[in-house]
Amino acid sequence: MRYKAIFFDRDNTLTKANPDKIKWRNEMIKNWSGKDYNVDYDKMMELFDRAGYPNSGLKSIEQEMIFFKKYYEELLKEHGVSENLEEKALILFNELWCNDKVLHDETIEVLEYFKSNGYKMGVISDTSPSLQMSLEKLGLGKYFDSYTCSDLVGVMKP
Predict the structure, then answer these.
(1) Which of 122, 5, 89 is nearest to 131 (CA)?
(2) 10 Å Cβ neighbour count for 52?
(3) Those residues with Cβ within 8 angstroms of residue 24's Cβ, 6 or more apart along the chain or in another chain
């Protein structure tokens, strides 16, 4: 028996950051803090630590939701926001969590090609438990036979 399979990464392969959500986030933070959004990768990792990202990764959607609410609080604190912190963090969470990605223009065409040619497809991503949910929200659930996220399996992909 011959198998044909292909695995994709989610971020920057199937999806990219939604520019409208980035603009919205930046405007909200500037509105609340008077400061421009300024978080590079290293600062984001510091904020993850401050928000309590577990060494073993996030193991459930519920744990992920709790973490990201705390992350948005830390992000706002970093920008000097203190008034109504939990409320504002919840606004960010509700707008951005599992809702901040868009598809690359060619994503559907590529997935249709592989599906129509008999490939089994999966996603392997260095991410948290919402991987499948985030792709299903974008209409991609029908394409994938498996989802593997680093937090649930306990290893990062090389």
Answers:
(1) 122
(2) 11
(3) 95
Distant-in-sequence contacts of 66-74, Cβ < 8 A, 24+ apart? 67/128, 68/93, 68/97, 69/93, 71/47, 72/96, 74/47, 74/50
> At 101, phi and psi to the nearest 5?
-120, 155
Radius of gyration of the chain (CA): 17
pLDDT tens per residue, range 7-19: 999 999 999 999 9
- Contacts (Cβ under 8 Å, ≥6 apart) of 145: 120, 121, 122
Structure tokens at 117: 């040619």
What is the mean predicted confidence (pLDDT) over 80-105? Answer: 97
pLDDT band at 3 (very low <50, low <70, confident <90, very high): confident
What pTM value is reported for the model? 0.92
Residue with tokens 């973490």: 67
Alpha carbons 142 and 56: distance in angstroms, whole number: 30
